[in-house]
Request: fold
Amino acid sequence: MGTMIIPHFQIGYFLLASLAFLLVKLDTVAHHRSWAFANSSGGLQTEASSSNDQEFDTNK
Reply:
């Protein structure tokens, strides 16, 4: 029984990591595809992205 616990923990950590990765990818895709939805839900991310775009423009 003791040896069976370790693989289960490894599988659980792998699933958690893959879920977090998918959530981040889905969040970025949704942010790029639907600006109206992001603006209606707060606009904090759009403000951060617009300030980053301005910084990139000044660096050029």
Q: What stands out?
A: The longest helix spans residues 2-33.
